[in-house]
Amino acid sequence: MNSFPTLSTERLQLRELTANDAPALFAIYRDAEAMPWFGIDPMTDLSQAHALITTFAQWRTQANPGTRWGLEHDGRLIGTCGLFKWNRHWNSCALACELAPSARGNGLMSEALRSVLDWGFAQMHLHRVEALVHPQNRPSQALLERLGFTREGVLREAGFWAGCYQDLQVFSRLSHEH
């Protein structure tokens, strides 16, 4: 993938994550109440946030690359979102996101994902974008449905975190629905 694709919306700057974002990212990922929805265990150390930023940067160099944007609102990082596991032969990828508790409920993630989906369908020539969501994560399910995603079914025990296997619901959006 070429240079990092910075995107702008009415209220957000979607940009590459840097080491300076680690404290804000750590604050989001250490939130034990939200972690069941993120598919990982809560972070316990700032070094884990630095490692995650490195991982997101490495996505762009993988055989099935991805892009993870930092969401900046009023000069501060409030979350991330991204397209990853890009299968160029199938023109498909996965979508993931998270938002700081203080930024939820204001339509910011919807605004960010609309921009990311527009970019993905246009620049990556995607046919299909899918998202996996925990069955009890009602806010994320509602967000995806507002964005035009269709609920397809359940992947039984497809995830593993918090010491046990987790079911995940599959949602998708196709290019002709965009």
TrEMBL record:
Alphabetized PROSITE patterns for the sequence: GNAT (PS51186)
Coiled-coil region: none
Residues in N-acetyltransferase domain copies: 12-167
CDD domains linked: NAT_SF
Source superkingdom: Bacteria
InterPro entries, per the entry: Acyl_CoA_acyltransferase (IPR016181), GNAT_dom (IPR000182), N-acetyltransferase (IPR051531)
Record protein name field: GNAT family N-acetyltransferase
Source organism (scientific name): Pseudomonas hygromyciniae
